[in-house]
Amino acid sequence: MKSLALILCCFSSLVFCDSSQIVALENYNSTTPTKIQNVLDASKLYLASSDAAAKLGRITVTSNGQSKTLNQLLTDFDANGFHNGFPVNSDLTISTTNSAADTDALNGLLFISSPDMAKDPNFLVYSVRDQVLPIDRSNYNETTLVLLNLHVAKVATDPDTKPFFYTRVDGIKQPENTQLYMYLGVPGDGYTDPKLQANYKKLLFKNPISLLQPIGNPPADTVFFNNIEPIQYTLRSWHIRAVGGGIAFNVSRQWVDSTTYQTTKETTTGFTMSQRNTHHSTVTYKYTPNHDGTSGYMINTGDMFADMNVTSCNEGSVSSPAQSTASPVTSTQFPDTTTKSVTSLSTILTIAVMISNMI
Ligand SMILES: *[C@@H]1O[C@H](CO)[C@@H](O)[C@H](O)[C@H]1NC(C)=O
Ligand SMILES: *[C@@H]1O[C@H](CO)[C@@H](O)[C@H](O)[C@H]1NC(C)=O
Ligand SMILES: *[C@@H]1O[C@H](CO)[C@@H](O)[C@H](O)[C@H]1NC(C)=O
Ligand SMILES: *[C@@H]1O[C@H](CO)[C@@H](O)[C@H](O)[C@H]1NC(C)=O
């Protein structure tokens, strides 16, 4: 039985400045127009905020002789529901007439894309709203979709596991011979190159998946999964890339408690992410007695703390090294029993790719 593992490379980290950036509204408290640093000409500005419209109306951004209040940007969508974005140059300034206390309490962010992104017709930005947005890119070979999560206050009846930020992506339809990638955070320079180190470090999920062959037995196999479990992402921003053909899926601001999760098909892939903080989550794979299968997972701990364990099928646990981008993958051949589970516990964040390849 071939060992199942993702091809993962570890790189040492490099610090560099991207031409895209995120800035927090709470950091700009002045009535005097204040320059936002490191903005290139021909960029675009996008707002993601669940702050009160009245407060956003007291904040003004100005560039190239044009001014907008953030209130105006909040509802500036195209026919498909994506943000139009405000074209800006390096002279971009921001000013506010909100009180210092009001500024302090703002949760909104500005995403300033790079000039490359601003002129890419397949670069889409969406700040995730309650209603379901069906995204159909089946007629496009290339898609970069930036998803910006809004802060959602919790109510007394919400479980402790519920995070303050979330997106749910489901009904994913991905044609074979296409590539799907999901990344932490917003895209940076060279966002269209999946091999770039900076992109690799932010990779959460991809389909197809490359399997590691035993040494001396190349080439690596690639497995395409027809079924992708619904995906929930619980940090402020992420992005999805689809290459080589169109994909379709639904995006919504929904959160379904996934501390216990049952996969929907025998052969499937997906990822699980810790919710508000430290919680066990258990994934149970669908299983047919007397069939054989393999599973594996990838852990991405990029920019996160150590102290994370993943246990699979009660066969022991793997501890991830501090600050590693991706730990080695273990594989498990399913014995002939009825329940399979992956249990993960993390102080901050756990992301695992689950593979159940039942034959
Ligand atoms: C505005 O922000 C600056 C820099 O963060 C800070 O030094 C200053 O005290 C703030 N002013 C008010 C009125 O909060
Ligand atoms: C999309 O990709 C397919 C397959 O690579 C290619 O045949 C087709 O010409 C591309 N279409 C466009 C509009 O780029
Ligand atoms: C996607 O959303 C649309 C509109 O709400 C709904 O009709 C459709 O059933 C959803 N598709 C999936 C696969 O969830
Ligand atoms: C992970 O496993 C190690 C070794 O078994 C243990 O010392 C550590 O406490 C575990 N960490 C968590 C978060 O459970």
Automatic annotation (TrEMBL):
Entry GO terms, CC: membrane raft
Signal peptide limits:
1-17
Region feature Disordered, mapped onto this chain: 316-337
* Gene Ontology biological-process entries: innate immune response
Entry keyword set: Signal
Keyword match Chloroplast: no
InterPro entries from the xrefs?
Answer: Glycoprotein
| Domain of life of the native organism | Eukaryota
Q: Which Pfam families match?
A: Glycoprotein (PF03409)
State what protein this is by name: Uncharacterized protein
The species this protein was found in: Caenorhabditis brenneri (Nematode worm)
